[in-house]
Design a protein that fits this description.
The complex is a heterodimer of chains A (474) and B (908). Chain A has 474 residues and is α/β, with parallel strands linked by helices. Chain A is 32% helix and 13% strand. With 908 residues, chain B is an alpha+beta fold. A four-stranded mixed sheet of chain B has the order 2-10-9-6, with no helix packed on it. Classes of the chains: A alpha/beta (474), B alpha+beta (908). Chains A and B meet through helix 1, helix 8, helix 9 and helix 10 of A and helix 17, strand 26, helix 26, helix 27 and helix 30 of B.
């Protein structure tokens, strides 16, 4: 199947498109379904004028060295977290109260007090939108920035689909100190079938994440393949290394084959990882102060985030932490709150989040890592403005408008890009697609967002077709 | 049979007389010895160096000057391009007609004249025809500006969504569409006939207005002038005669000399018979992005010796040329050093090869190319390496120590033939092919169910076991209907569930062409049109599938089919909606013979054509539509034969003659065209017998060559591409896991949760895809969701290294209490024999004395080591005395090192 070219690029709301809309007096007609609501909103004129609002921020420069990507599967509600709508009607506003945050005029949910107090470290992108209503395709979209070929609930994970962000990053940036560039854990996302977008796909195995499913919160958390067997000590490992070099000298394949040479350098890296302490120590959470571990929260997510900081510190370029394996709402694991939206958020999801994420930021900051580390917090979509899904207390899937949060790595704290309409239903200004989130991520790391890579058929494909949101960087 | 030819090209500045003399001496040599070195390009240029002008008839107009290449043709057919040399003189008989300005002829006035071209003491003649230009038109001049300047590339306005609100058809596919966009859209805002220079189109393209694509051309350029004139004339939809064919000359060239440049010319022939040199207006794209440049006058310059293909696009035409820049410096040095001067020396010097005569035609063909390319073929590899190679590529396992020894000690002259025969009859030979075909036709459990997967796998295996003609079983696979359980070949239509997937898969797998691009637009790098794509897809439009007993665990998952499926054909004529046409189109065979030089504007299925075809298909009644498909795809289809021959070859060399094996394209030519044609012919003659073609390949000297010619240095002409050196490759996932199991003597068994799926301890015998990700997926076993050969990854990754160094499989097998090491230490054999046993079972060769010394020392010092608590505990559980346990420890280390050595992991 070929889905490669169909969506080769995504039409941006350009000056000319806006011109067409206004020039023909057809402002009410939707020229592009994805931006439909936006075109009909009063913001058209202003957007038409500052077409490239990015352009005035051209001076901003990429400065991040690594990314921590926190992915909340299921789709966190934007209206009940950062894009609160206190003036909306009952059926939209929801049950939660606003509290003021460190950013004037930007209230947050009452169950995110710590995050709110730290909001001046964050940029909010409140106008992210796409058109995938099912978890698997939307998840793929959010993990790769590439629009899936179909909105099929069981989108198949083949090598034709796009690589994960971390894999594209690994293609361009090596990890420091021999630490793998892209590390992902502790779940394989699946909704019925494995969700696509979690590996290197056509970029090839060398860009796959170093992935594990072990739970950083369990008391015996360890990665056996990084751990030598009990009767193999370092001297025995050294003896083995010496022997293998001895044998390799005979056929001299390393001089003859690029593959053999590649294997050799990776073998060196594997041995170094086994014999050195950097990655193993990073994995060893017991080296952290108990108080800090407690501060992150003794949950899989909390300890995973702590581990993310340690891995970035050790030299990883992209650490992806999956909040949960599945979407499951209703007291289960994920953010898919079709039922009991408020109860689930209040009792399960927001407290865990409010404990962990602000701790991660302040921890990064106190270690001087925040400037170099871009933290990205998002799900695959938002949740419907109208309360009343299923049990009457839930919110449904809502890809048409949601909020993405970014901090660190040069982000201008307190920045808000884009706005949603009064119901939080559609972007009212500066609509942004997952493509642009991808572009922003790559740009922040100093990677050309439109750099081309070859797919399995040798077709040149840009790693992203979006535009970086430069205005949220200082 | 072929006399080695000394390098006769200019080794330095082509102007130096010395070189010519050198060449001349060489020629005399050749003359005396009666060499018949074939020239790739030339016809009569065999005996004497000569001068040649390409093309010989130069047709020039004011707008389209004629480019020419002056080639000094060496006796061996290689050329030196002297077009721009100062030593060349061009004398035009009637100077009022044309004026030479190398590399072009500039027309002065219409007329015909001759030119005499002299280079040193040789001369040749060419005809010059100058013609008047016809009027500049939209369909030719304007469209070629858009394509040549890159405006309609996929990354620019040719994008499906255009760029900045302006969209053009991809690479000028659709002139009407582009005409509308340029002249009509947005109230004609892009052109201004009153002030043409102020047209948005021109101001953007020259970057007077902000243009993300930058300045495409200057306002003093011919591009600008063409567009300006056209706009000033009121932007008419003017038409030139249609393009009939596109040709690049020279089509192929072997270029010697240190200057590494070559002149090409792109000639377009139009419907009215006119020919124009359109080099200046073509997009010329080299197959390698670096180290090569092509200027606007078609001068190709390479920074080092290389084998490069140039893909050429002009309007709707596609053409390609292949130029090999030979590596002269190396041959020169060798000569100067008095080393091997003649490529064939190595052959005659090759040891143990009783015959100097070339017995196998494959060897003669490879040899011939090596001589042309001045590559020294590797000598025959040693017997240890050869038997390991032979086992791995045919039966997917390592030879045992006894088998290796037996082969090496076999003094029989024809021993390779005997061993090849034995291996071709081995059941694992058929398993290996069943695995390859299962990969390619997507035989996986989700769609096929475990039972269906096993049945299809078994059917594929039996096709190989009985050596049924490939053509026959592929035809059966394409045309079978009915229950996929009762009639496994019907499964092809179960795994390929929609006409598009089926069209892409069948052409890629069975014809080796990739048509995916042509689904949405004409293929940008190949000759395929959208019409071709939908013509093939239409064959699959009447297939109906009924599921019996389908009980997926997850009802929402439409990709899972658990029971049987019945394939049948609907009672209607097959046709499919063509997105570019207003009507449906009927099935149409793919014109695989259509390649460069031929008409590339395919006939649109006209009304008349549609009718006659539709009538035809109605007559044939629907059930035969698949027979039709199978017939044209497999019967007397040259491309089918070439593809199959190439796939078989690639199985044994881990590299196709066309590589990747499923990417036949003019701009991806076979590395040795003669070899591929020969193999395809042999396949056909042997009645499409897999085993007899395999036998021919495996018993060739070419297969037995050493891999020592490979190098990680960037060799410009990598000998392994031409099979002058055996390509080195990583073992595939299954073979590697089996090899580790054989070496350690510990086998994993894949549990079978279905009674229909046979249990197996050998990974290459697995019928389907492993459910859990593990060793096999880490090493690239494909999920069988694509038909592309590329789905099987041979890349290396950190995960793989960790798996080999410290992974679960490795640890378990290495420390297993009943593994090979255990048997060895209890056998009370001497230390050297133990070491030898481990080397033979892993690397399939005895240790060198250096390795033996190191290993013996390791084992003898082992006993002195103090024991740790863990070791003591292990020794007790394994019921070993302390010294024996120490020995075991040392042997574990040795085996670990052997399994981690590159030599073990690689096929060489």
């Amino acid at each position: 199947m070929n889905h490669g070219c169909n969506e080769f690029g995504r039409m941006m709301m350009s000056r000319r498109a806006a011109l067409r809309v206004s020039a023909f007096g057809l402002a009410g007609i939707l020229h592009n379904t994805r931006c439909g609501a936006f075109a009909s909103s009063p913001a058209v004129a202003s957007t038409a004028i500052d077409e490239d609002s990015n352009r005035k921020d051209r001076k901003s420069k990429p400065r991040a060295k690594s990314v921590i990507f926190l992915h909340q599967y299921g789709g966190p509600s934007h209206i009940d977290t950062f894009d609160m709508k206190p003036n909306a009607p009952d059926g939209v506003r929801g049950e939660f109260q606003c509290i003021s945050s460190a950013v004037p005029g930007s209230p947050v949910c009452e169950y995110l007090p710590r995050w709110g107090a730290q909001l001046d470290r964050w940029a909010q992108i409140r106008s992210v939108h796409h058109d995938m209503k099912n978890h698997n395709p939307a998840c793929y979209y959010s993990l790769t920035g590439k629009r899936p070929p179909t909105d099929d609930i069981r989108l198949r994970d083949t090598l034709e689909l796009y690589p994960a962000y971390g894999s594209s990053i690994a293609k361009f940036l090596k990890g420091f100190n021999g630490v793998p560039s892209f590390i992902a854990y502790p779940h394989i996302l699946r909704d019925g079938a494995v969700s696509p977008g979690q590996h290197a796909s056509f970029l090839g195995k060398q860009c796959d994440p170093y992935f594990f499913q072990a739970d950083p919160n369990s008391s015996d958390f360890a990665l056996p393949e990084l751990q030598l067997p009990s009767n193999v000590d370092l001297s025995r490992l050294e003896r083995r290394r010496d022997l293998v070099q001895w044998i390799d000298r005979e056929a001299k394949l390393i001089e003859k084959s690029a593959e053999a040479r590649g294997l050799d350098s990776l073998q060196e890296q594997a041995l170094r990882i086994l014999s050195s302490t950097s990655l193993r120590d990073a994995i060893d959470l017991t080296r952290e102060e108990t108080s800090l571990r407690d501060a992150y929260g003794r949950t899989t997510y909390g300890q995973s985030c702590l581990l993310a900081r340690r891995l970035v510190e050790a030299g990883a370029r992209c650490v992806t932490v999956y909040f949960s394996q599945g979407i499951g709402g209703k007291g289960s694991e994920g953010w898919d709150t079709h039922q009991e939206n408020f109860k689930d958020l209040r009792e399960r999801l927001l407290p865990a989040t409010d404990q962990t994420v602000p701790t991660l930021i302040s921890d990064l900051e106190s270690r001087g890592l925040l400037n170099d580390t871009l933290v990205l917090w998002m799900g695959e979509f938002g949740r419907s403005p109208n309360v009343g899904d299923r049990d009457g207390k839930g919110r449904g899937h809502w890809p048409d408008c949601y909020t993405v949060m970014m901090a660190g790595g040069g982000i201008r704290g307190g920045a808000i890009h884009g706005l949603s309409d009064p119901k939080g239903a559609f972007p009212a200004r500066d609509p942004v697609g997952p493509e642009d989130i991808a572009a922003t991520l790559y740009w922040a790391l100093g990677i050309d967002p439109h750099a081309e890579v070859a797919d399995t058929q040798g077709r040149p494909l840009p790693i992203s077709t979006g535009e970086p949101i430069r205005s949220i960087f200082s | 049979m072929v006399k080695p030819s000394a390098p006769l090209s200019f080794q330095s500045d082509p102007l130096k007389l010395r070189s010519v003399q050198l060449g001349f001496i060489g020629v005399c040599l050749i003359w005396l010895l009666g060499s018949i070195a074939q020239a790739d390009t030339g016809d009569s240029s065999l005996s004497m160096p000569s001068l040649r002008v390409v093309p010989n008839e130069l047709i020039a107009t004011l707008r389209y000057p004629a480019l020419f290449s002056i080639q000094y043709v060496n006796a061996d057919g290689t050329i030196v391009d002297v077009t721009r040399s100062d030593a060349v003189s061009i004398e035009v008989q009637d100077a009022s007609v044309a004026r030479p300005d190398a590399p072009k002829i500039i027309a002065m006035q219409p007329g015909t004249t001759n030119a005499t071209i002299r280079y040193r003491d040789i001369e040749t003649k060419a005809t010059i025809i100058c013609q008047a230009d016809s009027l500049s038109t939209f369909s030719r001049e304007v469209m070629s500006v858009l394509t040549h300047s890159g405006c309609n590339q996929g990354t620019c306005h040719g994008n499906l969504h255009g760029k900045g609100g302006f969209r053009l058809s991809l690479r000028g596919d659709d002139q009407d569409f582009d005409f509308y966009r340029l002249t009509r859209e947005y109230g004609q805002r892009r052109i201004d006939p009153w002030e043409p220079e102020q047209s948005l189109l021109l101001r953007k393209a020259t970057s007077q207005l902000t243009h993300q694509g930058g300045a495409r051309f200057l306002d003093s350029s011919p591009e600008f002038e063409i567009l300006r004139t056209w706009i000033a004339d009121g932007a008419p939809a003017s038409q030139s005669p249609e393009l009939v064919s596109l040709e690049v000359v020279p089509h192929q060239a072997l270029v010697s000399g240190i200057h590494r440049n070559a002149q090409i010319a792109v000639l377009a022939r139009f419907q009215d018979g006119t020919v124009r040199d359109v080099t200046r207006w073509s997009r010329i794209e080299p197959s390698t992005p670096t180290g090569i440049s092509v200027d606007e006058f078609g001068t190709v310059t390479a920074s080092s010796s290389m084998d490069v293909s140039l893909g050429v696009t002009y309007l709707s035409g596609r053409a390609a040329a292949r130029i090999v820049f030979l590596d002269d410096s190396q041959t020169m040095t060798q000569q100067a050093d008095g080393l091997k001067t003649l490529p064939t020396d190595s052959r005659s010097a090759s040891p143990e090869d009783g015959s100097i005569l070339v017995r196998n035609p494959i060897d003669a063909i490879v040899q011939r190319q090596c001589e042309q390319l001045r590559i020294t073929p590797q000598p025959r590899t040693d017997d240890w390496t050869l038997i390991r190679r032979l086992f791995l590529v045919t039966v997917g396992r390592l030879p045992t120590a006894d088998e290796s020894r037996a082969f090496v000690q076999d003094l029989e002259y024809e021993k390779v033939n005997h061993w090849v025969d034995r291996l071709l009859a081995d059941p694992d030979f058929d398993f290996l092919w069943a695995m390859r075909w299962s990969d390619l036709i997507r035989n996986e459990e989700k769609v096929m169910s475990p039972k269906g997967t096993a049945l299809l796998h078994d059917w594929l295996r039996s096709q190989s076991a009985s050596d049924r003609p490939i053509r026959e079983w592929v035809a059966e696979l394409l045309s079978s209907t009915g229950s996929t359980f009762d009639n496994p070949p019907a499964s092809f239509h179960r795994t390929h569930r929609d006409p598009f997937v089926a069209a892409e898969s069948s052409t890629q797998v069975f014809l080796g062409v990739r048509m995916q691009c042509a689904k949405c637009h004409n293929h940008p790098f190949d000759v395929w049109k959208q019409d071709d794509y939908y013509g093939v897809a239409a064959y699959f439009t009447t297939i109906d599938r009924k599921q019996i007993d389908n009980k997926p665990k997850d009802e929402l998952d439409k990709h899972i089919i658990t029971g049987d499926e019945i394939i049948s054909l609907l009672d209607r004529s097959p046709e499919i909606q063509h997105p570019g046409r207003s009507r449906k189109v009927p099935p149409q065979p793919l014109a695989t013979t259509r390649r460069a030089h031929e008409v590339t504007s395919t006939p649109v299925p006209s009304d008349a054509g549609t009718e006659s075809l539709a009538n035809g298909s109605a007559e044939l009644a629907t059930p035969t539509v698949l027979n039709d498909l199978a017939q044209w795809m497999t019967h007397e289809n040259h491309q089918f034969d070439r593809n199959m021959a190439n796939r078989i070859w690639s199985q044994y060399f881990s590299r196709g003659i066309v590589d990747p094996p499923d990417d036949f394209r003019d701009s991806n030519p076979p590395s040795n065209p003669e070899l591929l044609s020969f193999l395809a012919e042999q396949l056909k003659r042997s009645n499409h017998s897999l085993k007899s073609l395999s036998r021919l390949i495996l018993t060739s000297e070419t297969f037995a060559r050493s891999s020592d010619g490979n190098s990680v240095q960037m060799i410009s002409l990598d000998p392994s591409i031409y099979f002058a050196s055996y390509p080195i490759h990583r073992l595939s996932a299954e073979v590697l896991l089996d090899a580790i199991a054989d070496a350690t003597g510990v086998y994993s068994e894949w549990p079978s949760d279905s009674p229909d799926v046979p249990r197996t301890a050998r990974a290459i015998r697995m019928t389907g895809v492993p459910k859990k990700r593990g060793f096999l997926t880490t090493f690239g076993k494909p999920d069988r969701l694509l038909v592309c050969e590329c789905e099987r990854s041979s890349q290396v990754s950190l995960g793989q290294s960790l798996a080999l160094v410290n992974g679960k499989e490795m640890r378990e097998k290495l420390t297993d209490a009943k593994n090979r090491i255990d048997a060895l230490i209890r056998s009370e054999r001497s230390v050297p024999t133990m070491v030898e046993d481990l080397f033979l079972t892993t690397l399939c060769r005895p240790p060198s004395s250096r390795e033996m010394d190191r290993a013996v020392q390791l084992l003898e010092t082992a006993t002195d080591k103090p024991q740790s608590i863990e070791d003591a505990a292990l020794a007790i559980t394994q019921n070993l005395t302390a010294p024996l346990y120490q020995k075991r420890r040392a042997l574990e280390d040795l085996l670990w090192a052997l399994l981690n050595s590159k030599e073990f992991v690689m096929l060489r």
